[in-house]
Structure formats: structure tokens, C-alpha cells
């Protein structure tokens, strides 16, 4: 049950238009801004009220403040209510919703569409990778679509698990089974771990099913099969992205983009 109802006004400023969903980091609502700098705009508001989610969302805010890219979701502003330890974050509204729901609604995507989404997300990831960041949680629920004319612009979101490359923080595996690079189970995280996860996203788009059947053992062992209907060149791409040995994968999103262009896949 969402905490707020349609029509309710939060912080005297945000009128709830609808509930968009609940994630690990809080509840998300479609809101209309009633006053201030963004008055009149319809945006997405994420609300975190318990201490653990506030902490994750605080990390996401700190990271997003540094980023500005057409394939990374924009944070518009945030408010922290210190007295109640509540964090409210405003994002651009991604009217298509997330890629998981999109594929579940539409069924598996054509290769052309799937490669188009892949290219958009790879550009967002490239922005992170060239700045020394690792997203750490690339999966369909964290990729959002926005309608622009007749097209959909896909963007990477959810930066609660983002890490700086080479940082010593101890990891516990927080990703989602079906999208976790095998080395992450051994507590190693690299930029190419994001590439593996993105390869899983491509497999999901082409099959409509969770990679590795959502089975943790199969995910760890990288046991998967590519359906017959997938073209040979896309099979080759998938095999390179899902290479179990991270040193044999594309090292960064930049290398992936170069390959897609060279092979004329986008
Ligand atoms: N900017 C946005 N525009 C439109 N819908 C959004 C936006 N941000 C989140 N949502 C939707 O709100 C819901 C909750 O999103 P959220 O990102 O918090 O969690 P999640 O990605 O589903 O799960 P997790 O937090 O575990 O990764 C999802 O249905 C998501 O599609």
C-alpha cells in the first residue's frame, strides 16, 4: 500500500497524481509541482522514510549531483527533512516506465529495437566508465524510457550501488540474480562487470525471460543458451558480453560502443 493518496499534497508543494511503484530505495510517485522554481512541471518524486533507504538514496543523490548526460536519468532537486530523517528526491518523469515492464507488456523485442536500447544504455555507462565509476546494478528495472517525438530515449537510473573504480569497500552481493557478473560473487567488481550485466539485459530483451532462469547457480556458472531466432552477429556480441572471464570481455562501455559501430549493428 502506498503511503500517500492521489490528490494529497506533500511538503506544501507536490501534488500526488499517481503512485508509480515501490523499489528498494523508496516509493515513487508522479507529482505536479505547485510552487517554486519548478511550478507546473510533472515529475517523479521518490520518498525514502526508513533509515537504510535514506542512506542509499543519499548516495544516489550525491552521485547524480555530479552527472549530466542524455542517457542518465536527471535529478531535478532534493529535500532532506532532518527532523524526521526523510529524503525526497525529484527526477525527470520517465513516461514509458522501466524496461522490465516495457518488455513484459510488449513481449520480446526485435533485434533492431533491442540493439537500439543497448546503444543508449551503453552511452550512459560510457559516461560513468570514463569518469572512473562502476554502476554496479545494471538491470531492466534500472533502465527507463522517455518518449521523445516518435522515439523512446532510454536512460540509466538507480545509482544507489554506484562505486568508484578501485575503491576498497567490501561488497556484499546486492545485485539481482540473472544480472550479476560471475566475478562479483567472488567480491571483485570492475567496469566490465557492468558489461556482463548489460549483456544479460540484452538477452532479456531478446527472449522476454530472466537470464539464467533467475537461478543463482546458473548465474554464477554463466549457464545460458541463446535462442535460434537470434542472428549470428548478435549471438557473437552476446557471447563476448557474457564471457565468464572478465579480462576477455569488453573492458568498458567505450569498447562496446566501438564494436557496435565497427560491426554496423547500430
Ligand atoms: N523517474 C521515474 N519516472 C517514472 N517512473 C519511475 C521513475 N523512477 C522510478 N520509477 C518507477 O517507480 C517504481 C519504483 O522504482 P525504483 O527505481 O525505486 O525501484 P525498482 O527499480 O523497481 O527496484 P530497485 O530499487 O530494487 O532497483 C518502478 O516501477 C519504476 O519504474
Characterise the protein shown here.
The model has no long low-confidence stretch (mean pLDDT 94). By secondary structure, this protein is of the alpha+beta class. The strands form three sheets. It has a six-stranded antiparallel β-sheet, with helices on one face. Strands 7-9-10 form a three-stranded antiparallel β-sheet. The protein folds into two domains: 8-91, Phosphorylase Kinase, domain 1, CATH 3.30.200.20; 97-263, Transferase(Phosphotransferase), domain 1 (Orthogonal Bundle). A hairpin with a 4-residue loop joins strand 5 and strand 6 (86-91). Helices cover 32% and strands 22% of the residues. Bound molecules: adenosine-5'-triphosphate. ATP binds at residue 46.
Keywords:
6-stranded antiparallel beta sheet; Phosphorylase Kinase, domain 1; 2 domains; 7 helices; 266 residues; 3-stranded antiparallel beta sheet; Transferase(Phosphotransferase), domain 1; protein serine/threonine kinase activity; globular; alpha+beta; binds adenosine-5'-triphosphate; 32% helix
Brief write-up:
The protein has two domains: 8-91, 2-Layer Sandwich (Phosphorylase Kinase, domain 1); 97-263, Orthogonal Bundle (Transferase(Phosphotransferase), domain 1), CATH 1.10.510.10. Helices cover 32% and strands 22% of the residues.
Amino acid at each position: 500500500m502506498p503511503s500517500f493518496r492521489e490528490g494529497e499534497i506533500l511538503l506544501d508543494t507536490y501534488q500526488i497524481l499517481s503512485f508509480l511503484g515501490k523499489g528498494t530505495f523508496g516509493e515513487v510517485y508522479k507529482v505536479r509541482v505547485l510552487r517554486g522554481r519548478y511550478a507546473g512541471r510533472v515529475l517523479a518524486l521518490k520518498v525514502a522514510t526508513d533509515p537504510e533507504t535514506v542512506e542509499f538514496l543519499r548516495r544516489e543523490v550525491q552521485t547524480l549531483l555530479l552527472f549530466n548526460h542524455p542517457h542518465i536519468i536527471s535529478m531535478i532537486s532534493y529535500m532532506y527533512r532532518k527532523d524526521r530523517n526523510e529524503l525526497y528526491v525529484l527526477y525527470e518523469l520517465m513516461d514509458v516506465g522501466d524496461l522490465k515492464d516495457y518488455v513484459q507488456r510488449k513481449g520480446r523485442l526485435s533485434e533492431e529495437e533491442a540493439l537500439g536500447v543497448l546503444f543508449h544504455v551503453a552511452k550512459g555507462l560510457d559516461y560513468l566508465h570514463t569518469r572512473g565509476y562502476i554502476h554496479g546494478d545494471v538491470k531492466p528495472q534500472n533502465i527507463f524510457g522517455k518518449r521523445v517525438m516518435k522515439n523512446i530515449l532510454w536512460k540509466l537510473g538507480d545509482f544507489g550501488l554506484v562505486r568508484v573504480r578501485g575503491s576498497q569497500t567490501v561488497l556484499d552481493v546486492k545485485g539481482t540474480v540473472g544480472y550479476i557478473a560471475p566475478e562479483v560473487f567472488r567480491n571483485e567488481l570492475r567496469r566490465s562487470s557492468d558489461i556482463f550485466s548489460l549483456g544479460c539485459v540484452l538477452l532479456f530483451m531478446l527472449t522476454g525471460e530472466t537470464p539464467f532462469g533467475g537461478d543463482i547457480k546458473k548465474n554464477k556458472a554463466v549457464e545460458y543458451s541463446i535462442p535460434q531466432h537470434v542472428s549470428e552477429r548478435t549471438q557473437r556480441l552476446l557471447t563476448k558480453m557474457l564471457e565468464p572471464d572478465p579480462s576477455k570481455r569488453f573492458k568498458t562501455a567505450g569498447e562496446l560502443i566501438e564494436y557496435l559501430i565497427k560491426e554496423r549493428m547500430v
